[in-house]
## 1
Amino acid sequence: MRDHAPLKTSLRDAFASFDEPWVPRIVGELNGQLVKVAKFEGEFVWHSHADEDELFLVIDGHVDIHLRDRTIGLDPGEFAIVPRGVEHKPSADGVASVVMFEPASTRNTGSVDDERTIEPEDLERA
């Protein structure tokens, strides 16, 4: 059972704890949602999530969320919500630091199997 004391988290420390891109780390959880941090670098795989919406909040760098009909550019302090079922492909020029809010069941590559797929139960904490 989780401790019910308020939780303070340093995003700076969380991002400093790892270097590998596209490997999300858990930094918090609330109401069945996970708060994850990840470093984006280059392009990810096209994918969608049948049952989960995703929120991408850029902390540092620039991220493009490619959709089939347009691209959403995100700078530090900006976020986008990708609704369930919408195919998307995040990418970053250089390294970008991103916070994600998504249900605990969310698989990083949705229904796509890829070398970068991480099952929800295999996620590490930052």
## 2
Amino acid sequence: MSIQNIRIEVMLTLEKKIDSFVEKFLIPPEKIWQPTDFLPNSQKDNFISEIEEIRELSKELHDDFWVVLVGDTITEEALPTYESWLLDIDGVSQKPDNGWAKWLRTWTAEENRHGDVLNKYLYLSGRVNMREVEISTQHLIADGFDIGTASDPYKNFIYTSFQELATYISHNNVAKIAKKKGHKALAKMSKIIAGDEMRHHIAYAEFVKEIFKIDPSEMMLAFQHMMKYKIVMPAMHLRDSFGAKGSLFDNFSTVAQRIGVYTGFDYVDILKKLTQIWEIDKITNLTPEAEKARDYLMKLPDRMYRITERIVVPDTKFQFKWMLPA
């Protein structure tokens, strides 16, 4: 049997548990928070005064903060790309009775709320050029991206396990900055979005753990592959109006590191946490090739940490079209 067919068989095995996964890790629409819960209520008399309060508080947050929040928002808004990519992996189909498609659609529906609420909040803040934000969002969706996983479910679940934890860290750190500046509503919003991302991370990490039980060697090799070539960030192709594909990502990444929202050390910490969650040091019955992959993965965090320590983050003032003139 080919490697691809074995992966499909593993996905079919896990699919038998899909209803329990949905029930355990996802929340029905009627019970979960909705964007309206965090936004001024247009049906109330204090609607305008609440918007004015948001605008006043938003003045206290510096441009670097808003650049990161815009980048995070655009990343969340590019959800159609992520859903379409995941629906194409081996073992998933659009058939009505396909359990994995059910999971992915329900997961997408939860994630969709993040972009909705952040977009509306940016609009109300008065701090950013929303037309430029919208242009960047449209570009990111239209450009698409290649996360280096092809249709391999093992690699894709490594990616989602990593990426969901990365977005948790980013939103959680945004919440800390907003809270420190007295922007309580934005802090609460970002904190609860971070909570969703952590819950999703736990789910995808659980899928990988289940695969390690069934097909440990191939799962270990997939993990090595993803870490060897590094996790590609969803925002890697960020651009503004008339900008080249990917022209903003390096500057955006620098700003995110500069204000401590997402750094190289966070990347290393995620890698270390995943090796611990999956207990790769304890996995048995590995092929010689998979044993070498495990050795590589166990040594990688310390090596990457030493490299990250040498990185100097510049304090350059970048020009983003998202930001309004001072």
## 3
Amino acid sequence: MTQYSLLLVDMDGVIWRGGIYVVKNIKALRMLQEKYKVVFMTNNSSLTRAECLERIKAVGINSEINDIYTSSVLAATYIEKRGLGRTFVVGEAGIYEELIVRGIPIVSEGPKVDYVIVGIDKYLTYNKLSKAAYYIMNGAVFIATNEDPTYPVGDRLEPGAGAIVNFIKTVVGREPDFVAGKPNTWILDIVVNKYKLKKEEVLVIGDSLHTDVPMGCRYGVDTLLVLTGVTSERELAYAKTKPTYVARDLLEALTSKII
């Protein structure tokens, strides 16, 4: 296929699974960068963009920090556009970094909290959950970095941000006001406008039938599902929303001339 100008590529489940790199996909990405503009997107809010860039460059993939989008970037951008306010965080370094660079005030206590951002947090405490729910029930805007129930680490799946978001949803009795990451199509709006592209020029590449594929389908761009992450062939067989293309990995996608 030659109609594409830009590839929007997921990271968790495509480039790595936790601390384990997906070698075939990395080899293919090195070759694809010679032909396409490649932009990276991850729902993982724990890593900073600098950390993502370091990991990508360590395996010979070229990129720039402005071509990396995390759900933390999108959550902080949402607050920036809506209006800066005091923000309480359930999450890790990736969220804090993006808030700090935008001058968004971070608070650990009330009395007035304008936003609560909820992401993956491996240092989660009951006290932190309790505070987040309290602030939301008292008027704070409820922002989820994503609602992924799991994320791939090595040969297993671990609890994702969605598990934490669901806890708070149960307590406050409502959905988040804004979900920053995939399948929200906002990232595609940003990329298409930034690079002045038509929808048919963009291909979304990812490993999830719950985030990558529905995001692309809702926006009207093609999608390529690689079976190197969270999706099994059995799950794919029963999926209601199907990708445009499927490959075991990106090298197979290359040899079969999907991309």
